[in-house]
Every structure is written in C-alpha cells, then in structure tokens.
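Lecture notes, unit on protein representations.

Consider one protein chain, 439 amino acids long.
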Amino acid sequence: MKIAVIGTGYVGLVTGTCFAEVGIDVTCVDIDVNKIENLKKGILPIFEPGLEEMVVRNHKEGRLNFSSDLAESIKDCDVAFIAVGTPPGEDGSADLKYVLAVAAGIGQHMNDYGVVVTKSTVPVGTAKKVKLAVRQELDKRGLDIEFDVASNPEFLKEGAAIEDFLKPDRIVVGVESDRAEEIMKRLYKPFLLNGHPIIFMDIPSAEMTKYAANAMLATKISFMNDIANLCEIMGADVNHVRKGIGSDPRIGNKFIYPGIGYGGSCFPKDVKALAKTAHEHGYKMQILEAVESVNDFQKSVLFTKIKKHFGSLNGKHFAMWGLAFKPKTDDMREAPSLVIIDKLLAEGATVTAYDPVAMHEAKKTLGNSIMYATSQYEALNDADALLIVTEWPEFRSPKFEEMGSRLKHKVIFDGRNIYEPEEMVEYGFSYECIGRAKI
C-alpha cells in the first residue's frame, strides 16, 4: 500500500513513522520546507522517546519519505491522512481551516480512488465538510473521481506514543462504505495480527469517540484533584484514598493521581471544543464545564501554598524542577509551570528552572523572564524553595543532602507527590504536597 500523511507535527510524524515501521510505503507531507529538509537529515521538530531512531532508520531504508509537494505525494495514493493542527479558536471551538485546506488540496490533485482520513482531532460533522471540500475541487477540475472519507482518531500518549501506536488498546475507524472499511482493514492488518482490536463504526461516532475519551480522562484528573483539596482540609491522605478507590475495577487506578492540573495539546483543547460543540447545539455540558473550572483552579494551588508560606514573595528566588506539562515530552502547551511562573513573577519573585528536555521549548515561550539551569542541582543554588512541577523519573530519588546544602531554605513544594512527607521531615525539609496534611 501507499499512503500519505499530511502534517508532520506530533500525530502526523508518529503515524507516518509507525506505518513505515511495519513495511508500508509512507510519504509525510508538510508545507514547511525547512521542516521537511530537517526531517530528511534526521532532525525532528518534536521530542518523543524512540522516535528519532525510528525516523532515521525507516527513511534510510526507503519506506519513509518526506515532501512538501502534495500533488506528487498523493498521486496513486491508497489512503491520505489529514494530520494537521486544530487549534482552539477564541471561543474554544476547534479551528478547522488547516484541515479543510488540506482537503481542498487533495481534491485539487487526486487522480484515482482513495480514502481521505481525518487523523486530527475534529468535531462531529467534520468528515462531511472534508468530503464537500474535496468534491468541490474535483468539480472545478471537471472530474468525477470516486473517493471515500473516514475518521481514524488517534489515542497516543505523549511520551509513550510509539508503544501506543504499534500496540494499541483499540483502533477506532469510522467509515461510510464497505470499500473504505476493507482498505482500512488491510492498512491495519499488521497490527491486527497481534490481536489488537479494530472497531468499525459510523463516522460521527468515531469523531465523538475521540472527544469523549479525552473528556473522560480529564474528568478523572479534575475529580481527583477536587478530592485532594478536600482531603487537605479534612486531614485525610489522598494517596490512601487513591489506592482505596483505584482497587475497584469499575474505577481503575489510572488517571487518578492528584497534582497541579492537566495541560498539553489535547485535554484542554478537546474539553473546550466538546463543550463548545454542545453549546452550539443547545446543550450544556455541565460536568465538562466543572472539569475545566477545577483544572484552572488547580494550576494555582501550588502558588497559593507558596504565598501562604512566605507571605510577601517580592525578592524571593525559587527553583523549579520540570517545565513540560508531563514527563517524557518537551510539550509546553497549557503547562501548569507557565501559570505558576507568571504568578511568581507578578509578585516580584525570580525563578531558575530545569527540565531534562523542555528547556528549548520553554525559552520560546518564557524567553529571558526566568533563568535556566544546566542541571537539577544547579537550579537549587540560593533558592528560597524548590517547586516540583513535572514528575520526571530523575527527580524521584535525588541526593537530599545536596539539595539541602544548595537551598537557602530547606523548603519543598511538591506538585506531583513524588516524595513521602515523613521522609522529608527526617531530612529536615519543610514539605508541602497535594492532598496530604503538612507534617
């Protein structure tokens, strides 16, 4: 089979590379010529564990190609994936201009039957708009080429995207014809051989499935954060509560870790978009609006603790471990660190931060408003307190004695609950975390 993946961002690059990994002829397409040339050299626009090696190897072996020429890339193509961004508009709705521009481009250049697949996260009804955009361009060319549209949402976790793609929990595909279903089944056959289920459904249901999945996960996070805040007030330990409810198979133990709010490219955007879609159809998503409200509040919880501890923050200096919204990624979109930094700077404080991979991305957003350390320990020098914002593995078992010697005050605000309060007291630290009483 021959496929094209239009868009070389997170979803597009992972999708194209993983299909190439199982022997499919893939061309990844992007209008950014510089990005394409970099990809040919093995320079990736994103960080994802294991992806760089896989891109380089498959490109070298000729299965994975990169191009800025859409016309050539979709010639004789069996499947064309649309994997461009759908950024939130000012009102929270998903902006489909890039998706529809690609659809129009496909209609301008396709020369035979193919399946046009939305891989981007798009609202229900987008496939109809994609189909219309393709058909209008074909009509302009005076051609009556048959084609199908399909929806194939991604369920990739940043930091584990390759594993998620190659060994998926499920593959969801929305189709409108038997022909399209057969082609998509053939495309995913290498994955089905290992027993991974493919679920075919109508297109609107597939489009909704992606939003519903992310909304449910965001809901679990916000619910647990709400419980954590109440635990602190009532003297309960949220870690015990989490284990107690997580052992119930109806609830499960995933996405119930309390913290300082979710971020990234998916949950914030998708929760807003789904709530907006409902509003446009005269329905109010009351739970999702609460989920978003709790998450906005939670991003300030650590700052509130800092303010309560120190009072005035003017002239105070803080060390921050972690900038990315989660470990194993350099993604700074909607990261809680940005909210905390903004509030600290507004109070006259200064910040030195360290993140294993997100420093470059952070500088694009924060510039010189904060200082950047070359190691986690360097960040601590003469700081009034340490803030743990991202739970990178290398932060879990640090040298506590060295931490204490570098900090001006032995104070830790842990937004991810990676240490035990009792142990921190033994090391002489004042330690505050989420959902657990201060010792």
